[in-house]
Amino acid sequence: MSRTGSIWRHFDFVLFGTTLVLIVFGILMIRSATIGAIDPDLIGRVPDQIRYAVIGIVVVFVLAAIDYRLLGGLHIWLYIIMVALLVLVRFLGVEGDAGSQRWINLGIRIQPSEIGKILIIITLGYHLAQNYQKLNGLGAVARSLIHMSVPTGLIFLQPNLGTTIVFMVIWFVMIWAAGLRLKHIGMFLLIGLIAAPLLWSQMEDYQRDRIETFINPQGDPDSFYNILQSQIAVGSGGVVGKGYANGTQSQLRFLRVRHTDFIFSVIAEEFGLIGGVVVMGLIGVVILRILRGAQRAVDPLGSLICYGVAAIIFFQTFVSIGMNLRMLPVTGLTLPFISSGGTSLLSILAGIGLAQSVIMRGRRV
After folding, report:
1. Residue 199 lies in a domain
2. Domain count of the chain?
3. Hey, which of 4, 105, 113, 307 has its CA 20 to 30 A from 315?
4. DSSP string over 266-311
5. What pLDDT, on a 0 to 100 scale, did the predictor assign at position 60?
6. Average pLDDT estimate for 95-103
C-alpha cells in the first residue's frame, strides 16, 4: 500500500494540468466552430468530444497505474491486436471522405490507426530496448523497420498518408533515441529518394492534388479555396483576435473543416497571435515534461516510450499548424488535444497515461 502511495506522489500534475487546460480549450473551440450548424454530425461534435475526453482522462489514470514494463512484456499480443484491427479495416471498414476506409464500427466508431500509434510505441520500444546494443549492425535496424512496415503498410492502403508519415516519424525518433548510427542515415535517405516515385504512384488522386496545390496554388483554385480562407482567417485575427465565436471566416462558414484540420485558423482569428502562441506554448510544456520523463526513466523501454509519445505530439502539432499557415501541404492530421476527433483524442491521452507511468517510476533527482 505504501509502495503504491509513493508511486502516485510522483504523478506529474504539471503535465496533467496542462493537458486538461488544452482539452477544455479544444472543446470550447469546437463549440465556436460548430455554432449554428444544422448538420447532425457537426451538432454532435461537442458532446462527443466531451464524452471521449472523460473516457480519455480515465485512461490516463488507468495506464499510469499500470507498470509500463508489464505492457512491454505483452508486446507480442499488443502487436497482434494492432495488426488484426488494421486488417479488420480492410474487410469491415466504414468509408469516409475521398473514399478512405479508416474506421470500424464496434458499437462506436473507432479508428484503429489512432490506437496503433500508441501500441506501436510499446511494441517498437520493447523491440529496440532488447536490441539497442546491436544497432551498430544493419540487421537490427532492418528488423525494426520490418516491425514497423507491416502496420504502416496497412495504414497506407486505407489510404491514410498522414498517419503513415506519423508512423515513420515514430520509428525514426525512437530508433534515433535508441542509438541509430550516423552511417545508416545516408543509406535511408537514399532508399527514401529511390522509393519516392513508387510512393507517389500509389497515392490516391486527392492526396496528390493536395501536394500539387501546395506547390502550384493556381493550378486548382477549388482545392486551394480552403487554404486561402485559412490564411485570411489567420491574418484577420491580428495580435489579439476578434473575440470568442466572433471570427467571420468560421462563423460565416467560409472556412471548411474548421473543427478538425483548420481549427488553428479559428484560434488565430478569434484570439490572434497571442492566442496561437499560448496554445503552442502549452503544447510545448506537455512535450518538455514528457522529455523530462524520458531523461529520468530507469530503463531504455521507459525512455523510448516517452520519446515516442513526444514525437507524436510534436509532429502532429508542427504539421497541423504548418498546413494552417500554408507552410506545409494539407494532410488531415489533427491538432493534439484541440481538434475534434474522439479516437484521436483518446490515443493522445493514452500516450499521456503511458508517459505518466514512466514518470511515476523514474529516477528521483
Report:
1. yes
2. 1
3. 105
4. HHHHHHHHHHHHHHHHHHHHHHHHHHHHHHH-SSHHHHHHHHHHHH
5. 96
6. 62
> Which residues span the domain enclosing 261?
2-360
DSSP state of 85: H
| Contact predicate 255/266, CB 8 Å | yes
Cα–Cα distance, 199 to 201 (Å, whole number): 5
Confidence of residue 105 (pLDDT cuts 50, 70, 90): confident
Q: Rounded CA gap, 7 and 202, in Å?
A: 49
Contacts of 360 (CB under 8 A, 6+ apart): 7, 8, 10, 11, 12, 64
Task: Evaluate whether residue 107 is within a structural domain.
Answer: yes
- What is d(CA 115, CA 206) in angstroms, rounded to the nearest whole number? 25
Q: For 338, which DSSP code? A: T
Q: How does DSSP classify residue 66?
A: S
Express each pLDDT in 30-39 by its tens digit.
Answer: 999 888 777 7
> How far apart, in whole angstroms, are the C-alpha atoms of residue 148 and residue 364?
33
Neighbours of 344 (CB within 10 A): 23
User: Residue 168 above 80 pLDDT?
Assistant: yes
CB 174 within 8 A of CB 305: no
What the block records as the C-alpha cell of 256 is 471548411
Tell me the β-bridge partners of 139. Answer: none
Q: Read off the DSSP letter of residue 93.
A: P
On whether residue 365 sits in a domain, the answer given is no
Helix (H/G/I), strand (E/B), else coil: 175? helix
pLDDT digits (tens, 9 = 90+) for 34-90: 887 777 778 888 999 999 999 999 999 999 999 999 999 999 999 999 999 999 888
Task: At 246, list the grid cell.
Answer: 466572433
In a domain? residue 103: yes
Gap between the Cα atoms of 240 and 112, Å rounded: 39
More confident residue, 16 or 44: 16
Which of 311, 319, 206, 218 minimizes the C-alpha distance to 261?
319
What is the pLDDT confidence band of residue 1, given thresholds at 50, 70 and 90? very low
Retrieve residue 339's grid coordinates.
Answer: 481538434
pTM: 0.89
Query: In which element (H, E) is residue 103 found?
Result: strand 101-105
